[in-house]
Specification:
The complex is a heterodimer.
Chain A (H helix, E strand, L loop, with lengths): L1 H8 L3 H4 L2 E17 L2 E19 L3 E7 L4 H19 L15 E5 L11 H16 L5 E19 L4 E19 L2 E12 L4 H4 L2 H16 L7 E7 L1 H13 L4 H4 L20 E3 L22 E5 L2 E2 L6 H7 L7 E2 L8 E2 L3 E4 L6 H6 L3 E13 L4 E13 L2 E14 H6 L3 E2 L4 E7 L5 E7 L2 E7 L6
Parallel strand pairs in A: 4-6, 8-15, 14-20
Antiparallel strand pairs in A: 1-2, 1-5, 2-3, 5-6, 6-7, 8-21, 9-10, 9-14, 10-11, 12-13, 15-16, 16-17, 17-21, 18-21, 19-20
Helix pairs in contact in A: 1-3, 4-6
Chain B lengths: L3 H19 L5 E17 L2 E19 L3 E7 L4 H17 L23 H5 L2 H18 L3 E19 L4 E19 L2 E2 L3 E7 L6 H13 L10 E7 L1 H16 L1 H5 L20 E4 L20 E6 L2 E2 L6 H6 L8 E2 L7 H6 L8 E2 L4 E3 L6 H6 L3 E9 L8 E13 L2 E5 L4 E5 H4 L3 E4 L4 E2 L3 E3 L2 E9 L2
Parallel strand pairs in B: 8-15, 14-21
Antiparallel strand pairs in B: 1-2, 1-4, 2-3, 4-5, 5-6, 5-7, 8-22, 9-10, 9-14, 10-11, 12-13, 15-16, 16-17, 16-18, 18-22, 19-22, 20-21
Helix pairs in contact in B: 1-2, 4-5
The chains are: A alpha+beta, B alpha+beta.
Amino acid sequence: MFESLQKGIQTGIADKANLIQLRGQKRKMITCTVKNGVVENFSNIRLSGVGVRVYVDENSWGFSSTNALDSESVEKTLVNAYRLGKASSMLKNRRTPLELGEKVEAEISSKLKKSPDDLPLQDILEIPSSAFKGAKEADPRVADVKATYISIQDDKYFLCSEGSRIHQETTRIMLYVNVLAKRSGLLCPASENLGHTGGLEIFDKVTPYSLGKTAAEKAARLLEAKPPPPGKFRVVIHPTLCATLLHEAIGHPLEADLAMAGGGFGNRIDELVSSRLVTIYDDGQVQGGLGYFPYDDEGVECKRTNLIENGVLRSFMHDRTSAAQTGALPTGNAHAWDYSVEPLIRQTNIGIEAGESSVEEMIEDVKEGLFLEGTFGGQADVNADFTFGFQGARRIRQGRLEEELRGANVAGNAIEVFKTIDAVGKKAILRPGACGKQQFAVQGRLVPAIRCEILVGGMGGK
Amino acid sequence: MDSKADWENLSNMVHKALNFLDRKDISYAEAFFTSTRTTEVTIRNSEIFAQNRADDSGVGFRVVAPGNKVGFACTNSTNEKAVIEAGVQAMSLARLSSEVPNFALPEARRLPELRGLFDSEVAVAKVDEAVDLARRAIESAEGFDERVIAKHGLVVFESGWRGVANTSGVDHVERETRAVIYLGASGEQDGEVTSSCYDVAFSRSLDLEPEQVGESAARMATELFKPRKLKTFKGSVIFGPEAVSSQIFTVLMNALKGENVVTAASPWAGKVGQVVASDSLTVNDNAVLENGFSSRRFDDEGYPSQKSVLIQNGNLLSFLHDATSAHALATENTGNASRSHGGFDMVSSIIGNGYRTRPEVYASNLVVQAGNRTRDELVSEIRKGVLAESLAGFPQAGSGVVSAQLSRAFFISNGETQFPIKGGMVSGVAYDWLNQISGVGNDVKRYQNAIVPSITVEEVQLVGA
């Protein structure tokens, strides 16, 4: 692959452009979905192609991609990218010279104990089938179960006109279980998931059967639960849900493209923006994290970046352009879902440093509140407004967990909500995550439980 | 690659592979193949950020082994060896798989005539035209009011072919174009930053109006200055078209998908002929709408497109089906097999759409029939309530629970909008809301898979900060 990319770089375009980045990729995915005992989908997906990005006139990016791999197609794609870059350069009234990138030569292979290639395909089937069984056998009111196994094997090649040459091979394994429990007309959803960068050893710790069982037991319990109440509450947020809070509420507004849009956290570097108990970072080199990307798609090493230290805003997540525009260093956060799309500023493995409280202690101090757990995904806006869903809750009264409540969404503004954090859990766990900002991304989250105040979009009685 | 010769080359390879598979011990084989060129201009913080072009083509095979066992494989390597290999992989997976009860693929049938799917101007449009549209949208937004910033946006031109062929004689090809303009803007004043407001236009031709999109996004943003907090109460809510297209559409889709009826995951399973909504609600799916953004002559497994009435004055008449769900429920196929199923489903986001995935049941153009009242008339009828133009957050489709942030909303009292709302939510079960509709507007707006007006719902829970 490097050969056909190299030929591209040797064309005359290299003299006319400020920077050329070429990304070749081969991706192999196996997916298997078992729905209610039926193998509904068993897929083998093979994709390959080249994406070329060219920076021209110190102000404009052109990107072009092709599913053909031969050097002639790569060359054509490069010419396209150059022309595309030129198409808006005349309209720009400022120049943003990029800092010279570090020349990197790297060969990366993610750690892998049990390769999915060594497992016969019929045994792959057993993984979602077993998750289905675990769910179905958990409770007779389980009405609908969908379990999906996915392996993604990526073989990525990066070459740029500054001389970098990076080869990264990664394997990712994921298992998603969605359950609906039913009692007369009432349907209650719940879900569980597993995912990491690594091999099938992920199922040594948590078996697919037990994952299915956990999701189903949760859905069945929620049938007996009441809807949550509406209003602002003091809440203890379980790490599974804190992962979504972190990603939506703080992660998105700290992506430089969103931050630089003004509002939210923009222009607040070195200011206190959160409770002092909070330290937040992004780290593409967390072993096993679903967002394990040692180098980003601009060839920048994706090391740990402290975003907020003890409540003080220290950095945004940058690509090379946003870094140059703000006089910061790139942080390795330019990532593309695959060869066919341009890199965007994305989180990798975002984390909150563990604190000092146990979950029990966090609950003990709450007179009247809620304990929220399980995520349903969410959204964020540039002004740091966010919303996301929880799967279930428990009422807290006088420091004790009481009746169970169904799921709903919570909402708030990150700057307001993060100031109310008054306890951080002492154990951070690594969770799989995903994001749909224009294009898809798999990410990791390292999160403890936290306690804060938040608005709950409930519909039940007090 | 969107030249005719390249397309015919791919089509020949696909047919060879199907012939090859047909000689093996299989029940059916199907190929879905596309070739598209996408030109895109992106906007980031008042500027055009990048110009992108993607050339993509590929094929996905579904092979059914005896005993209704199904496998899928795809490739985007468009050489004969890779294409045949994908077909063989699908066959191997099918053999390892277990029975899908009632699995079916459509037989060959005559397709409806349909105009407005392809526009040669889009097919040959240069990136400069997209740059020009993007520039005009930014200038219109920021020129509308100096407090407005065009934060993000897109102009997309897409042109390509779509083909479906199977071993039961289906063999259809369609050439399509699409053009989209999207602009997100927010307002800034004395340190106050509004929510992002966006406008979008979906078309098959180059009739996009960037000035209108830019101005409209800007106007929305300026309306949000000086918001006030909301107190928790129950009242009337007008869901604007954007809110209907995100929240209510998702919940409707969950209830109307035939495959959810088969598994009883739809709350409306077994309710055909019964009342599921207020009598002012009529919903159809129209895949043969002229110039419709998601119109098509055949669905993504080759069944002819049609218009299906789903809810007539509150009565549930039909679900949406593909060949398999129709077969399972012994009813007529509605031609709703789709390989682009919208929403944010983790698994389908990872797999991708088009040739990368098998089809699922999904709407083409889901049309909520317009009412006869203007937006102002709807507002004038409300004593105390909220106009919810835009909502953030995902509904729980299974349970119908919507619990969403009011990201662009206004408080209404005594028939007039009073002030924009900051930090409130709306919550309830959308299936219940459908029975509490008191008004439907005539302000229809087009989205990717939905064509919807405003809807007023009574007795909705509003949550104050």
